[in-house]
Amino acid sequence: MIKVGIVGGTGYTGVELLRLLAQHPQVNVAMITSRSETGVKVCDMYPNLRGHYDTLAFSEPDAKQLGAMDAVFFATPHGVAHALAGELLENGTRVIDLSADFRLRDADEWSRWYGQAHGAPELLQEAVYGLPEMHRKKIKTARLIAVPGCYPTAVQLGYLPLLEAGLIDPNQLIADCKSGVTGAGRGAKVGSLLAEASESMKAYGASGHRHLPEISQGLRDIQQSAVGLTFVPHLTPMIRGIHATLYGQLTADPGDLQALFEQRYANEPFVDVMPAGSHPETRSVKGINTCRLAVHRPGNGNTVVVLSVIDNLVKGASGQAIQNLNLMFGFDENTGLTAPALMP
Ligand SMILES: NC(=O)C1=CN([C@@H]2O[C@H](COP(=O)(O)OP(=O)(O)OC[C@H]3O[C@@H](n4cnc5c(N)ncnc54)[C@H](OP(=O)(O)O)[C@@H]3O)[C@@H](O)[C@H]2O)C=CC1
Ligand SMILES: CC(=O)N[C@@H](CCC(=O)OP(=O)(O)O)C(=O)O
């Protein structure tokens, strides 16, 4: 049994960590922080957790107490993990950061997209990008994990087999993505109000979203050369879920695309390649750590279309964070992550 702490426990990804870890036989959540709810019991704020965390209460994010944990999850806004990660690592505590603090390898690029100086550039070299389907070996020995963003997870998993096989033009990638409103976090914002977000849909960040450099970096790593990506996110009237429609231009005879995807993900516990002709739904992954994919080649033409769905709070954040923890501590990769999705 290991002891873990969660910094930022009142947010959507924090409470999702609690929900999933309640089923994890090897993990004891020993500390959870919130500056605004200090002293409040977790189960008083989140009644769905009654019976699971009856004594655990929110406390201040004290570095010394966090340093007594085996691992600490950061479910906080950007910049918070920068300030605390170094001290925790020095104490031998492993850090799993759900924010974007360590996702980009270039500190200057991070500063440009996040509008603040990078607070811990000295840690960038050791941070491992926590996408197990690409970096499983490195994750197993990592001390510091940058959990991928929600859109980046859905997009990279969809393009991975095609780019690895060299079948599409890396300069003509188009990712048309939709997110539910929990993607914007729990903080009060006009755009997340029921009357603003329901019965409507809109694109945002079309001329440049902070996930663009993260996705491009990941696809570049697969492709081993520059990529040209157009990424347009949309806000849709659902609570959870990411739906990515990915377009690629074939440069060679692709052979059997369905077999390519099935073979690439045959040993991946959290990627489900749907039968040929499928259209995966976001609700089929609600609450679970699975990415469901389908690959199409309309009219047998030159365009390949990949459909990729995840739950932004699970494979897009907290579930993937636990998948990383399992790998880092030598637990079965799917420990605590095996329940089926809630449907409808
Ligand atoms: N929502 C999503 O779908 C996804 C989110 N992420 C990322 O995960 C992180 C958390 O997201 P989410 O749960 O949505 O965020 P929320 O806004 O819902 O929650 C943020 C949490 O962080 C705490 N917090 C805020 N500022 C600080 C601070 N300076 N020091 C310590 N704690 C702080 C808050 O509690 P308090 O202020 O009381 O301390 C709160 O518990 C973000 O970086 C986000 O980008 C990643 C993938 C998907
Ligand atoms: C709907 C919505 O607002 N989504 C967020 C992305 C989700 C998220 O939290 O981003 P990270 O994965 O990088 O942390 C956004 O567009 O900024």
Automatic annotation (TrEMBL):
Report the CDD domains cross-referenced here. AGPR_1_C, AGPR_1_N
What NCBIfam families does this protein map onto?
A: argC
Single Gene Ontology BP term? L-arginine biosynthetic process
Organism expressing this protein natively: Halomonas campaniensis
What GO molecular functions are on record for this protein? N-acetyl-gamma-glutamyl-phosphate reductase activity; NAD binding; NADP+ binding
Top enzyme class: oxidoreductase
Similarity field: Belongs to the NAGSA dehydrogenase family. Type 1 subfamily.
User: What UniProt keywords apply to this chain's record, in alphabetical order?
Assistant: Amino-acid biosynthesis, Arginine biosynthesis, Cytoplasm, NADP, Oxidoreductase
The compartments listed are: Cytoplasm
What Gene Ontology cellular component terms go with this record?
A: cytoplasm
Q: Which residues form the active site?
A: C150
Q: What does this protein do?
A: Catalyzes the NADPH-dependent reduction of N-acetyl-5-glutamyl phosphate to yield N-acetyl-L-glutamate 5-semialdehyde.
Domain named Semialdehyde dehydrogenase NAD-binding: residues: 3-142
InterPro entries listed in its UniProt record: AGPR (IPR050085), AGPR_dimerisation_dom (IPR058924), AGPR_type-1 (IPR000706), NAD(P)-bd_dom_sf (IPR036291), Semialdehyde_DH_NAD-bd (IPR000534)
Source superkingdom: Bacteria
Gene3D superfamilies, alphabetized? Dihydrodipicolinate Reductase, domain 2 (3.30.360.10), NAD(P)-binding Rossmann-like Domain (3.40.50.720)
Question: What EC number(s) are associated with this protein in UniProt?
Answer: 1.2.1.38
Look up the coiled coil feature and give its residue ranges.
none
Query: Is Amino-acid biosynthesis included in the keywords of this UniProt record?
Result: yes
Q: What is this protein called?
A: N-acetyl-gamma-glutamyl-phosphate reductase
* UniProt entry tagged with the keyword Lipoprotein: no
Pathway given for this chain reads: Amino-acid biosynthesis; L-arginine biosynthesis; N(2)-acetyl-L-ornithine from L-glutamate: step 3/4
Q: Its catalytic activity? A: N-acetyl-L-glutamate 5-semialdehyde + phosphate + NADP(+) = N-acetyl-L-glutamyl 5-phosphate + NADPH + H(+)
What's a Pfam family in this record? Semialdhyde_dh
